[in-house]
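Chapter review: from sequence to fold.
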Amino acid sequence: MNQRSMAILCDPETREDLTLDGEFLFNPTSGKRYPLREGVPDFLDSVTGQNKKYQELYDRIAKFYDPMFNLYRWLHPRYDMRKELAEELEVPAAGRVLEVSVGTGANLPYLRADIEFFGLDLSWAMLGRCRKNLRKWNRAAELFHGEAEHLPFRDQVFDVVFHVGGINFFNDRAGSIREMIRVAKPGTKIAIADETEKVVKSNYERWPVLGKYFRGRIVAVSDPTEFVPRDMQEVRSRELFEGRLYCLTFRKPR
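The token string follows.
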């Protein structure tokens, strides 16, 4: 952890200051310590509910994730999902960018090279793949193991905040959106994308073995527009790639 990054961190539960203490991040007020695992701050003591279920899923598929996505791109060469989503973002020169649910980091190559990139994910295995990709791409990033509902960052510190994949099954979708808004600077455009019910129903439920994570759902997948606070501006939701993906964007008021 560098000092520049430390300046924007806080305890995800209390939002109190953290200091670097050897291999830990330390909250002097509460005495709470968060370990650094291979240099990555670990803010997860325990995970429950939907988050636990899908943490297990992504830990299981991490090493297959990039090959599966590359196969998908080969089968659907007309669609460059990540390029189109990146074009939704308003990334300034040398901007500070947060991706919530960074996964293997596959969106990073679509962003300009001069940014400060921060990525948080629930899955330690996905973060491990992300670290390998960063070395392969010769790109720098600060990674964090944590939940979207409790971001370990101070208020209003990011020029760009976005999320791709996962929010459909978060424990608290409304809470995660509030957190994305909280850490974004005033005027920031926030983008949230995930698969539609069409994909979950026709594809994911039919997966051998892993399909159990998606079958038996009581509520169909829908975009989380209903959880966007009313004071947000320029709220827009649209479907991409023949209804396979929704993309919700809105702007935090200045």
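Two observations follow directly from the output. The longest strand covers residues 233-240. The domain at 48-251 is CATH 3.40.50.150 (Rossmann fold).
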